[in-house]
Amino acid sequence: MVPRSLLSMALCHCLSIRLVSGLVDNLIGRNKIVGRVSAGPIDISSMGCGTWSWGNKLLWDYDPSQDEEIYRAYRVVRDAGVTMFDTADSYGTLELNGRAEILLGQFERRYQEEKSSSKTQFNFGKFLGNSDADAKSNRQQVATKFAPYPWRITRGSLVQAARESLKRLEQDKLSVAQLHWSTANYQPFQEGALWEGIADVYDAGLCEAVGISNYGPVQLSRFSVRMKERDVPIAIAQVQYSLMTARNNEILDACNDAGCRLISYSPLCLGLLTGKYDLDNLPRPGNPRRQLFRELLPGAQPLLGTLKAVAKEVGKTPSQIAINWAICKGTVPIPGARNMAQAEENLGSVGWKLTNAAVAELDAASAGLKKYMIENIFQTR
């Protein structure tokens, strides 16, 4: 017969191991809920995080005093498995241009330091299996966009832009180097230099792959041909894509032909699909979204009603339904997160999937819109 004292010690030991394992998971983000998908030659998180609002005063009322709260949101999504962060060298308002890149670099260094400190302080290293594999799959992936400013008319200017972004990030290599938009509609002679320049960024070893933003299927196909000639892999193509945007399957087909992943930016239509706004509750006066929402909300009521009905049926919020719908379409949505509430709301969009019937119901409501969200002015065909 085993003495009661030994049984008690064994039980305490088992409980201690389970407690430590739980603490490890919480401290280093082992319990990830965000999956992985392919994007050309690389794998990325199935949901990303957009950083447009980090530094933008005009649309998002950014102030540097918000940085600590933004970091807390960053830490939450990183712990959940989000690795893909979309940014741009132009993100920020006026003197804050590049602010999002600076914060991304600072946040990741702090995040890694905190993880390392937790492991060292509690001596959890011996409990972590496959640490190298975990670190590789959960490393931060920055996909930054270079604005085709009028003065960027040489291919070398793109390489210089990439080096400047890496300097702000304090990193050696980008996951994806992207062209922010095409100049084909207004300054076509610049387009060739941009394409050659982004390929040169890859050849210089400054990125793992390239991507484009605000390109339609025709221009994406042309870009893809040139990149194949240069032996440069394309990872992502991003467009404004939500239940509020007019769309067809041509861009998805073009991405499949190019071997890249479609990134859906503004999956919540600047917040309109959250269900938080109506004509009596609009963004503050002076915010460009105020007039836009005033124009879109009346015709969007049937869609918003369907969104709320589906959300109630599956026990989710309208925001989570809208983001999951984008995932069901095969895209990687990149909703922004500036605080803990937004981060946790976004994470409620993953780990489950809408039924085909629910997707079809939402598609029908979207197709019935009387007025769609306006396209980005730089969007090409």
Question: Which key terms come to mind for this protein?
Answer:
two-stranded antiparallel sheet, alpha/beta, 13% strand, eight-stranded parallel sheet
What does this structure look like?
This is NADP-dependent oxidoreductase domain-containing protein. With 381 residues, the protein is an alpha/beta fold. Helix content is 48%, strand content 13%. The protein has 13 helices and ten strands. Helix 6 (155-169) packs across helix 7. The longest helix is centred in the C-terminal third of the chain and has 27 residues, at 288-314. The radius of gyration is 22 Å and the shape is globular.
- What would you call the structural class? alpha/beta
The SSE string, one letter per element, is HEEEHHEHHEHEHEHEHEHHEHH
Main sheet: strands, sense, barrel: 8 strands, parallel
Strand content: 5-15%
The count of DSSP E runs of length 2 or more, i.e. the number of strands, is 10
Mean pLDDT: 89
Determine Rg (CA atoms, Å). Answer: 22 Å
